[in-house]
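R.M. (postdoc): so does anyone remember the format we settled on? I'll just put the structure tokens first.
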């Protein structure tokens, strides 16, 4: 299988064609073309496509992993209440909204894995959605099939991983802009980036590096990709130069790293700002979840509406009985008197009693649509789990269904507890294997009270 890695910089676009077989892998072809305008645009992409076709002799281009330059991105350290990377990816954009110099709806972002001992702390790499889509459109129009969009930060890590694993210390790249990545325990703990033009500002460059050194980077080993910035030549005299594998020119290191990013899913956390194939698969899974949730909601609505109708009928009947009783008592006690102070006090007392009955009937529970939305959103996205029945009784909700394993049931219970808030108790009343085998039948109860673990 062949794939292309393409990296964009201000003055050139480079590409590397990689072939992976069952027993070996190799560099088939690499090239670089100059940019007529900054970052190339459509003309640069078309020129690159022509150069690749000419060099390989093949009219069709393989799938492309596109690496965006640091100058198009924003780096932010985020601390989230979840240690799991996949769950953090789903919620981290909310933490970036209002904290980036771009509109919230234009944020396109992904996370790098957190270092050991820093659970919940992640490095977010974001870009403007319009910029990414425009770049993808230019390459698509030139004949490329863009399968994944990453950034140079991921490409740098991927290139180093492919040679000898991530070393502890600092990775300094000047292959495009200036990127500094601090690596701890095989993951990035800190990151900074500067325009390439800062290399011509000795005072500013030294000041920035000293600022990084104050954070504890001074005693750490440094690995350099590209040329050492002149202002730092003395400070980095003992640094290690990154040596690319045979067949990879220095100008194509980022393209080489880009094409290998899918091979380092665990180390890079599946980093991707835009993934066409995965996005389509995710849409299919989402559509399936929506259909399953809709069926479950339809069945649940029948039971819930019936329960609510009975509750409303009972409530109306009790109100009518109370009103008739008050009217009868005062008609008998004070015949002919239309306004009596004590009657108001008794009515108030009856109303308070009625409210207590309303709570017993569950009339103060959330609206049905809100309740069903919470249950639907709590369904684990990749779990084999289905809800067959939902019943509502006096403020308590009982869910019954089947899951692929007990772990899926616990995950669903935990999500329901989070969605229901701290005022609710979510417990697994029943969890046993199905007679059909391969599934677990469960019953989950949601009721008011202090939240706790499953029983």
């Amino acid at each position: 299988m062949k794939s292309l890695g393409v990296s964009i910089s201000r003055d050139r676009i480079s590409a590397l064609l990689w072939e992976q077989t069952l027993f070996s892998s190799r560099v088939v072809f690499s090239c670089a073309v100059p940019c007529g305008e900054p970052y190339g645009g459509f003309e640069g992409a078309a020129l690159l496509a022509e150069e690749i076709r000419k060099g390989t002799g093949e009219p069709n281009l393989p799938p492309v992993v596109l690496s965006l330059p640091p100058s198009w991105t924003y780096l932010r350290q985020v601390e989230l209440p979840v240690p799991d990377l996949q769950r953090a990816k789903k919620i981290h954009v909310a933490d970036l909204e209002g904290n980036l110099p771009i509109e919230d709806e234009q944020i396109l972002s992904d996370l790098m894995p957190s270092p050991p001992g820093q659970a919940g702390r992640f490095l977010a790499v974001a870009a403007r959605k319009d910029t990414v889509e425009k770049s993808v459109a230019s390459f698509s129009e030139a004949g490329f099939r863009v399968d994944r969009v990453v950034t140079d930060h991921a490409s740098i890590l991927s290139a180093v991983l492919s040679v000898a694993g991530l070393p502890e210390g600092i990775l300094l790249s000047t292959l495009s802009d200036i990127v500094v990545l601090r690596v701890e325990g095989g993951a990035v703990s800190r990151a900074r980036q500067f325009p390439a033009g800062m290399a011509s500002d000795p005072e500013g460059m030294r000041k920035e590096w000293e600022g990084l050194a104050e954070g504890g980077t001074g005693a750490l080993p440094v690995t350099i990709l590209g040329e050492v910035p002149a202002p730092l030549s003395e400070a980095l005299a003992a640094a290690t130069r990154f040596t690319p594998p045979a067949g990879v020119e220095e100008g194509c290191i980022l393209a080489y790293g880009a094409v290998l990013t899918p091979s380092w899913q665990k180390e890079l956390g599946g980093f991707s700002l835009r993934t066409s194939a995965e996005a389509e698969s995710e849409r299919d899974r989402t559509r399936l979840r929506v259909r399953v949730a809709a069926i479950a909601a339809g069945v649940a609505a029948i039971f819930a509406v019936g329960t609510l109708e009975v509750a409303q009928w009972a409530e109306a009947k009790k109100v009518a009985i109370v009103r008739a009783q008050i009217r009868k008592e005062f008609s008998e006690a004070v015949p002919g008197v239309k306004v009596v102070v004590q009657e108001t006090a008794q009515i108030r007392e009856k109303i308070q009693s009625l409210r207590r009955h309303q709570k017993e009937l569950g009339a103060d529970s959330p609206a049905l649509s809100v309740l069903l939305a919470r249950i639907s959103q709590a369904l684990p996205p990749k779990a084999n789990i289905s809800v067959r029945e939902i019943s509502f009784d006096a403020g308590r909700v009982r869910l019954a269904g089947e899951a692929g394993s007990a772990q899926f049931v616990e995950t669903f219970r935990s999500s329901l507890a989070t969605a229901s808030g701290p005022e609710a108790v979510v417990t697994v009343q029943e969890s046993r294997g199905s007679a059909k085998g391969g599934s677990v039948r469960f019953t989950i109860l949601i009721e008011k009270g202090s939240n706790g673990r499953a029983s």
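R.M.: ...and that's the designed sequence above, right after the tokens. Also worth knowing: The chain has two domains: 2-272, 284-448. The longest helix spans residues 276-333.
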